[in-house]
């Protein structure tokens, strides 16, 4: 039987990232691991996860939860470093299409 730790390891995100998705979507951790795996397979899935983490940061700011805000900001930084397709400047360097313009960057 798979444990939550096994599922987190399989979805290629950290436990904190999975928990941020669970918090944002208001779903159980196990469902968040499934959602994370699904999103990572989509072309803009990493960008979606980045948006989820940024939404969680905004929520922490509204609640005046400075500790959570800082933890989420550190998590976001690590996520962007590990998943370069979610950062527009990295997408261009890797040759991925510009998501806003719907076109490929000039070569």
Task: Write a brief structural summary.
By secondary structure, the chain is mainly α. Helix content is 68%, strand content 0%.
Question: How do the strands and helices of this protein lay out in sequence?
Answer:
Blueprint: H1 4-10, H2 15-25, H3 29-41, H4 45-62, H5 66-82, H6 88-94
Helix pairs in contact: 1-3, 2-3, 2-4, 3-4, 4-5
Low-pLDDT residue intervals, each spanning 5 or more residues: 103-107
| Biggest sheet descriptor | none
**Given the structure, what is the number of helices?**
6
Radius of gyration: 15 Å
The SSE string, one letter per element, is: HHHHHH
The percent of residues in helical segments reads 55-70%
Number of strands: 0
| Overall structural domain count | 1
Describe the protein.
By secondary structure, this protein is mainly α. It has one domain (11-94). Helices cover 68% and strands 0% of the residues. It contains six helices and no strands. Helix 2 crosses helix 3, helix 2 crosses helix 4 (45-62) and helix 4 (45-62) packs antiparallel against helix 5. The radius of gyration is 15 Å and the shape is globular.
Properties at a glance:
single chain; 107 residues; mainly alpha; 6 helices; 0% strand; globular; disordered C terminus
